[in-house]
Design a protein that fits this description.
The complex is a heterodimer of chains A (about 100) and B (about 210). Chain A has about 100 residues and is mainly alpha-helical. Helices cover about 70% and strands about 0% of the residues of chain A. Chain A has one domain. The longest helix of chain A is centred in the C-terminal third of the chain and has 26 residues. Chain B has a single domain, classed as Four Helix Bundle (Hemerythrin (Met), subunit A), CATH 1.20.120. Chain B contains eight helices and no strands. Chain B is elongated and about 65 Å long. The chains are: A mainly alpha (about 100), B mainly alpha (about 210). Chains A and B meet through helix 1, helix 2 and helix 3 of A and helix 2, helix 4 and helix 8 of B.
């Protein structure tokens, strides 16, 4: 049974936690659909994006297991997220202040 | 489980951490691919916000919501397939994988009806009906078809990957103490879900 190589530290969760995350995702979906029906004007887009970000965080942390992974995964994710953000911000500077 | 010399032979080199990290690098290239399109979307939505709203009214929010739920549920069954294999329940894992494929196919069928409805109204890239409209609307539908089209392409690839994973599980190539392939397939599938989480409000929920 012993393995010498790097491998799973089995963070074996039951089925329950994933069902809960799924319920939260469904709830957030119905919230974002409902909120879209209300006229929030300029706030509508930030609200929709915020809800999408919360849903992403749930998917990444639980379904994609990042919450339970080694720190190197979090560092990598942070690095790639920041890269994408920088690309967006730099482009927006170019577009808006042309 | 002897520690004798003979036991060393069946210890093939295995690096699950490296395999997953490699998968994450690939996922990041995918995020860049879609990220570029989201960037184009953001810039044009800023420039043509009213026309984007007008064009978005023609999309079917009900079908979009339904597909969102279908895809989220397929993500759940994907992760449950991993839990099942961890608990050494092979048949249950196969069942969850089959369900994931089932949900993916439902997603594609709904997409088919959505797109055919658009086509029958003469709205498709380069159509006369579309080109007679204003630039903002042309851009909205162009982005809609390219982004949801590329996403749907990823769904099809995902179905193929999950089908291959099912064969691996069936042939005991993926087992309770060696399932990194299943995890990586899962990561891909969740990314597909993740992209849809942003596509859905940006295209279907502008009012």
């Amino acid at each position: 049974m012993e393995h010498v190589n790097t491998e799973h530290k089995t963070h074996s969760h039951g089925y329950g936690i994933y069902v809960l995350v799924w319920l939260a995702l469904i709830a957030l979906t119905s919230i974002t659909v409902t909120v879209a029906g209300v006229d929030f004007g300029k706030l509508a887009l930030p609200i929709a994006l915020f809800i999408a970000a919360v849903k992403s965080a749930l998917v990444i942390n639980y379904f994609m297991h990042i919450k339970f992974e080694e720190p190197i995964f979090k560092v990598f994710l942070l690095l790639s997220g920041t890269t994408l953000l920088v690309i967006f911000i730099l482009t927006f500077f170019d577009v808006f202040y042309r | 489980m002897s520690q004798s010399n003979g036991a060393v032979v069946n210890q093939l080199h295995r690096d699950d951490l490296g395999a997953k990290l490699g998968m994450w690098v690939f996922l990041f290239t995918e995020v860049l691919l879609f990220g570029g399109m989201f960037l184009v979307y953001a810039v044009y939505r800023f420039q043509f916000s009213d026309l984007f709203k007008l064009a978005a009214l023609e999309l079917n929010t009900g079908l979009g919501t339904f597909n969102t739920i279908v895809l989220l549920t397929s993500s759940l069954t994907m992760v449950l397939a991993i839990v099942a294999i961890q608990k050494n329940k092979k048949n249950l894992s196969l069942f969850y994988l089959a369900s994931t494929i089932g949900f993916a196919l439902i997603f594609m069928v709904v997409k088919y009806f959505e797109w055919s409805a658009k086509f029958s109204h003469g709205i498709y890239p380069g159509s006369e009906e579309l080109l007679n409209r204003q630039n903002g609307e042309i851009l909205f539908f162009g982005l809609y078809f390219v982004m949801t089209g590329l996403h749907a392409f990823h769904v099809i690839i995902g179905v193929i990957i999950i089908a291959v994973l099912m064969v691996f599980v069936y042939k005991n190539k993926i087992v309770h103490d060696n399932y990194v392939k299943l995890e990586n397939g899962g990561l891909y599938w969740h990314l597909v879900d993740l992209i849809w989480i942003f596509l859905f409000p940006l295209f279907y929920l502008i009012h």
